Structure prediction request, 174 residues.
Amino acid sequence: HHTTPEKCVEDSRSAVRYVRKNAAQLGIDPGTIIVAGASAGAHLAVCLGLIDVLDDPQDDKGISCCPQAIVLFGPCSDTSGHASRWKGSPLEARGKELARSMSPMHNLAANCAPVIMMSGSNDVYLPANRIFAQESLALGNRVELYSAPNMPHPFHNDSPWLEAAVIQTDRFLA
Prediction:
């Protein structure tokens, strides 16, 4: 697809601004936007609440792209080690800087939207997700982390984990 990671973050931020701006036409409450994602989509979802540097220059920055809650399935909380993935690509020169700038772990702040994270216990990202949750809680944010025993990355697409993930999400949002 040749789409760069920062363009994906930028597009997701623009999408939430579009939804919020057009909420009346869409028949939704602009004050109760909840985003969810799995794996790379989870990364984009959490970036909506944490990353403030990747915006489309044409976006109205007066419209918030921060959701009221974030639901994450198999997220990658720390992308700072992903620079090597861009070796040989046009992103290689900026790899470390770019990976860190889009890393939820390195952009944590107080007053973030509530986050629920669900990972498999065998998910390679679980250790970083635990650190992310601990550090976010220390900042006073609401974060819940659930781990599915003996499950990989991602784990939530099939029974019984699909139902378990829906139940946890429902409890979190209630």
Summary: The mean pLDDT is 88.
